[in-house]
């Protein structure tokens, strides 16, 4: 077989795999949106869920999902980015740092159910935080922190050494070189990792079953006192998220319109993740242009 024919076969195989992947993804998204978009209404988004009667909404679950996402990323991004900068720029190549990298790889590959059980034992029971937003957010921080560390380290290591040498040759300190040269150049890669982690957090259910709980109080959006039991900002209340609500309605729900509620909630979940990704990438490009001056 000559090289040209082999090249065409390889290209055809790659294109076929890409078409199958894109087609499968489009079919799944299309099916979810087709089943659920018709169930979405203003009342569905702004009314409390119902345990027995038809016509319930997802107001509390939607807020809980975004709130846990915000708290988790607030904890994960600074810690993970700092850890990645340390491993890429400051840590010496020793057995200890190699051991740290191995631990990070292992933690990044843990199943979410294992992280959920760990959160149940440590945060819910040992620290006595009970089923709460704080327990869920910290458990998801443990779940996503290794990913941010590895993504940040790899993004910084991909920056050419010529840029480092140029910064140091101009008399810049190591931290100033990292801040002004390396981080702007590595920002697209870091942003991609943050977006992927945010999508995992928003759609996570297994870990939150054991940490955030399967119920949520009817929130009073006129009461923003963090110490109030039904305040949206209370970190120590149980918080059923949108993905957990979908699982709960499909598995143990007894409401007459369980399929419709689950379909509508799934469509909202997909649309929210897609919207978040698009907005994050747009903001990332704006920030990247400002940081690089281009």
CATH class: Mainly Alpha
Counting DSSP H or I runs of 4 or more residues, the number of helices is 11
How far apart lie the N and C ends? 48 Å
- Look at the structure and give the mean pLDDT: 87
- Approximate strand percentage: under 5%
Summing up helix and strand content along with how strands pair, one would put the structural category as mainly alpha
Shape: globular
Give the proportion of residues in helices: over 70%
Radius of gyration: 23 Å
Total domain units: 1
Contiguous uncertain segments of 5+ residues: none
- Biggest sheet statistics: none
Assign the CATH superfamily: MetI-like
CATH topology: the name is MetI-like fold
Beta strand count: 0
The H/E string reads: HHHHHHHHHHH
Level-2 CATH architecture: Orthogonal Bundle
GO molecular function, one term: phosphate transmembrane transporter activity
Keywords: Cell membrane, Membrane, Transmembrane, Transmembrane helix, Transport
InterPro entries: MetI-like (IPR000515), MetI-like_sf (IPR035906), Phosphate_PstA (IPR005672)
Main location: membrane
Describe the SSE topology.
Elements: H1 3-36, H2 42-46, H3 59-90, H4 95-108, H5 112-126, H6 133-157, H7 161-169, H8 174-203, H9 206-209, H10 242-251, H11 258-292
Question: Could you please describe the fold and organization of this structure?
Answer:
It is found in: Cell membrane. Residues 62-280 form the ABC transmembrane type-1 domain. GO terms for molecular function: phosphate transmembrane transporter activity. Belongs to the binding-protein-dependent transport system permease family. CysTW subfamily. Keywords: Cell membrane, Membrane, Transmembrane, Transmembrane helix, Transport. The chain is mainly alpha-helical and 294 residues long. The protein has a single domain (40-292), classed as MetI-like (MetI-like fold, Orthogonal Bundle), CATH 1.10.3720.10. The chain has eleven helices and no strands. The protein has helices spanning 3-36, 42-46, 59-90, 95-108, 112-126, 133-157, 161-169, 174-203, 206-209, 242-251, 258-292. Helix 3 (59-90) packs antiparallel against helix 8. The longest helix is centred in the C-terminal third of the chain and has 35 residues, at 258-292. 33% of the residues are buried. The model has no long low-confidence stretch (mean pLDDT 87).
